[in-house]
Amino acid sequence: MSLKSTTKTDVNTTELVIAIDAETFENAVERAYQRQKKNIQLPGFRKGKVSRRLAEKEFGSGVFYEEAINSLIGPELDSAVKETELDLVDRPSVEVLSIDKETGVELKAVCITKPVIEISDYKGIKASKTVKAITDEDIDKQIDMIRRKNARIVSVDDRPAQLQDEVIIDFEGFFGDEPFEGGKGEDNPLRLGSGQFIPGFEDQVVGHSIGDEFDVNVTFPEDYQMTDYAGKDAVFKCKLKAISYEELPEIDDDLVKDATEFDTVDEYRADIRAKLEEAAVKQAESAFEGELLNALIEKVDAPIPNCMYEQRIDALMRSFEQQLKQQNMDLNLYFQYTGMDMDSFRDTYRDRAVNEVKLRLALEKIVELENIEVSDEEINNGLAEFAASNGVDVETVRRIIPMNDYVTDLKVQKAVDLVKENAVVTEPASEDTAE
Predict the structure, then answer these.
(1) What is the mean pLDDT of the chain?
(2) Phi-psi region of 52 (alpha: psi -120 to 50; beta: other; left: phi over 0)
(3) What are the CA-CA distances from residue 294 to residues 285, 299, 310 (Å)?
(4) Which residues, 6 or more positions from 264, have their beta carbon under 8 angstroms from its beta carbon?
(5) Of 20, 36, 63, 321, which residue is the least packed, with the fewest Cβ within 10 Å?
(6) Which strand (E) or helix (H) includes residue 154?
């Protein structure tokens, strides 16, 4: 192989012209013939016994050229890319420029290269960090969870249904006089005011008593997930069969002893406060980091190959498909429920993909500018943690993950830490939480 020329044709595009000598090409053609000859058959010859000369005479001199060239493209292209030290972000498109038994083959490869990012002022980025102050109301909400877990269900037969009651209803939905699919339920539990049903449905159950049969008139929302129903008026014929409500116990030391690891209400409230304050600090830190990273994204304005965005969308879609499989669904069924198709679904990920690609490029540039490295100890500790969390040994992890990408990820995380350490906090954390 010889690299004849290297031409930068666009910002992130380079064309390589590669020459493959006649001897290398001839050897590839012979290998192609040897692989195909078992399937070649001509009158007067047993299958697999036709010589290459006769096969080329019968089917044309270039009958084995395509397979021969395809077998050469991979290694020849890899060698050329290595020689030019191009950093590719997609597999090159290859065109055959010429084929000659005497002189060999000439190829043109169009290579999409990683964009060169210029980034500055990544130290001293201003971002707000406000830690939410924890109130008694926040603590009461957590305590109410314990009360609800220990609530007593009280059946009601002497009054109409009210908001927050739990009711049991039968219902069937109609468009005009025709029932519609999925609109029927029997002995269906419903907490009034929960927003579980179509807007307006639950409010119309309020005021009815056990045994009442009544109509509920609603309009499906314009953005309803089943597009055939969106915006349509419907009538649900309902029957109220039971009413109950939760009777919450008073919070006292006895309930705390029975339901928690604490002995008194005061001890329990203090523990809740500590945990909520810790969560508030983490939430503020996460929001702070998000603001910094958004600022980095805004600093990236270099042209970026569209294929990088498409590849990121592909990765996000694969992740979503895995989530669907865990719910015994697939994309086709998801599309039926949402009324989407593949193109519109991919578009929902586009903005996210653009931001993630830009952020990654910015952080990798910071790694380069700051000469960020990771030690063997940091690599081994990370692998050990990953192995432990997945129940495998470290050597197995080394075999199954791309180590170069893993090391790059560690460096990128160090770049994030560097940006955070050098950021300017515009709103300090609350004094109580900091203390």
Answers:
(1) 91
(2) alpha
(3) 14, 9, 21
(4) 253, 256
(5) 321
(6) strand 152-156
